[in-house]
């Protein structure tokens, strides 16, 4: 990959002024375009908001010690994961109920991801069904995120099977959301996207789910989604059951403790996503970038480790990669791009991430991302 940013920095500045630039500017635009309940839901953290704040601040406490004179005229940002090569280390984090941001919801996001060649992780509680999304971008790389149903494990296996059939290439099981976090903003505003029926795409298109319903009116559908989405009794045994039922790689999203990372390896899990859910679940927990180094040490390269939570710009991604992440998930930034300008907004956010990452790698003396573990990092 060549340095796309050269043109941007030297001659193409004027085109860029049509779009917000920083995360804060995109967020501001999203706040103007979204309904207050929906924006409050998406933007705030759980509890006192400590973790959401810590996620962002923690990146600034890690500093890069760059190398010089390394011939960085071309930068190779490609990564290899589960036997597939990707042009950049970026993924779109699973974000449910995207109709909150934009009418076309996940379909618009999926098209942007396809244009930018960034894999998309589709949420269990997406507005559109996983099949609709696959139809919109048949050849783009896609993963499916599962919220396990403890009341109907068969529903979870059915969703996994549908994902596999529709061409999804990995299953991400989110384990930090056994129940919803303590979200005061939503308590105050009385906002619940599930109660409004915004996250039902994958449920109403599932034969196991529909068969389990006493009747098919909207009220029963929503009541049953609430019942199925919580899974406080989820354990490693359930993970093993999912592993048995799919030939796809299975990742666990929401690991912060190195011991849990080791257990994941023992259970044959194929990858880990270090995440605190963007500070939306347990407030007061460690920033994911600070949890990463010990997890990397515990896993010893046996399986790839990805990271999300607080990644706001290219340099954050460079830091995560230097600390041992094999890939980085972009969350709220793309959601705000979607709210601000639909598909084009998501593309723009992703383009900026790629460009800033490329420039940052070059200025760090890192022409090849495969060498990034050599980049010296210190705490400041
Ligand atoms: C509005 C919203 C909805 C989300 N929905 C899901 C979801 O359905 N499944 C999931 O695993 N994570 C979900 N997440 C968490 C993201 O995947 C990701 O972990 C988080 O956004 C990272 O934090 P950041 O966006 O602050 O960087 C959601 C996040 C937001 C903001
Ligand atoms: O809000 C979230 O973070 C999330 O994961 C979720 C859970 C249920 C419905 C929609 C989103």
UniProtKB/TrEMBL annotation:
Enumerate the Pfam families for this protein.
Answer: FMN_dh
Which catalysed reactions does the entry list for this protein?
2-hydroxyoctadecanoate + O2 = 2-oxooctadecanoate + H2O2; mandelate + O2 = phenylglyoxylate + H2O2; a (2S)-2-hydroxycarboxylate + O2 = a 2-oxocarboxylate + H2O2; (S)-lactate + O2 = pyruvate + H2O2
Instruction: Please tell me whether the keyword Nucleotide-binding is annotated for this protein.
Output: no
Q: EC number(s) of the enzyme?
A: 1.1.3.15
- Does the keyword Iron belong to this entry? no
Tell me which cofactor or cofactors this protein depends on: FMN
Residue positions binding glyoxylate:
41, 147, 183, 277, 280
| Source species, domain of life | Bacteria
A single Gene Ontology molecular function, please? Answer: FMN binding
Quick one: which residues bind FMN? 94-96, 123, 145, 174, 253, 275, 308-312, 331-332
Spell out the catalytic residues: 277 (proton acceptor)
Instruction: Cite the SUPFAM superfamilies for this sequence.
Output: FMN-linked oxidoreductases
Q: Keywords of this protein's UniProt record, alphabetized? A: Flavoprotein, FMN, Oxidoreductase
* Residue ranges of domain FMN hydroxy acid dehydrogenase in the record: 15-380
Q: Which family does it belong to?
A: Belongs to the FMN-dependent alpha-hydroxy acid dehydrogenase family.
Name of this protein: L-lactate oxidase
Which organism is the protein's source?
A: Niallia endozanthoxylica
